[in-house]
Design brief:
Helix content: 40-55%
Number of strands: 7
Shape: globular
Number of helices: 9
Order of helices and strands: HHEHEHEEHEHHEHHE
Length: about 270
Amino acid sequence: MADDGGAFQRSTWDRMAATYHQELDPRFAPAIDHVIARAALRDGDEVLDLGTGTGSVALQAARLVRPRGHVLGIDLSPEMIRVAAERAAAAGLTNAAFREGNAQAIPAPDGSADVLTSSLCLMFVPDRAAAARECGRVLRPGGRFVASVWGAQEHAELTGMQRTAGRIAGQKPAPGVGPAALADPSEFLRQLRDAGIEASAEHATVEFHYASLDEAYVTVARVTIDNDSPGLKAQIKAAITAEMWPEPASPRVLRQDLVLISGRRV
C-alpha cells in the first residue's frame, strides 16, 4: 500500500466503498467474527484496526472495549474512511476514530496499541516485511495481534469468481499481492517474528450463500473490475457459468478458506 501501486489500490478501494458496505460487509460477517473472537477484547483496550475498510471490525471492537477503551481504524482509502466514520457516528460510538494511512507506515505512536486487528487486508500489502515491522512497533509488549487473510486458490470459490472476472476483463494482478498472496503464511510469520511478534496460523472455512449467479455477480465479480459494460458482463457470467455455476438461476454456496494469524508482541 505504498507508492508502488498505492495510487491504483486507493482508487480501487474508493470506487468499491459503497458497494463494499452495502453488499460485502454483511457477507463477510463470519470472517470478521473469527477476528473479533481471537482478539479477546475487553474494557480499556486500545485497539488499532489495520485496513479497516468501512469499519466493520473497528465498530465491533469499539463496542467491546468501552467505556475506557478506544479504537483507531487505519485505511488507505479516504472513501472507506469516510463511510467508516459515518457508521461510527450513526451508532453513537464516540470511542472510534479513523485515519488515512497504510500498513507500511502506520500513523500511530510506538507502543500505542494493546491489540492490533486486520481483516482481509495484509495480502494486498506490497512490502509485508515493512508491515510486520510496523505492527511490532505500534504494539505494546504483550499486545495481541490478530489478522485474517484468504487461503489457497484450490479452496477459494469466492475469490475464484474474482479471478475469473479479472481474467476476462484483462486485469493483471500486481506481482506479490492479491487474495491468495498469504495463503501460505510461513514467510509472513517469520517476518512477524523478526519484528517481535510470535504468531501462528490456523484455518477456518467460511460460507457465502447466494440465491443466483446474478446476485453473486454484484457482490463478488463486479467489485473487482473497472469496466462493467453489458458485453463484458455477459462474457464474465458465461465464463463463471462454465467454470463453477452450471445452473446460474439456482442458489449456490461459495466456500472459502480463511487463514487466521494470531500472536503476541514479546
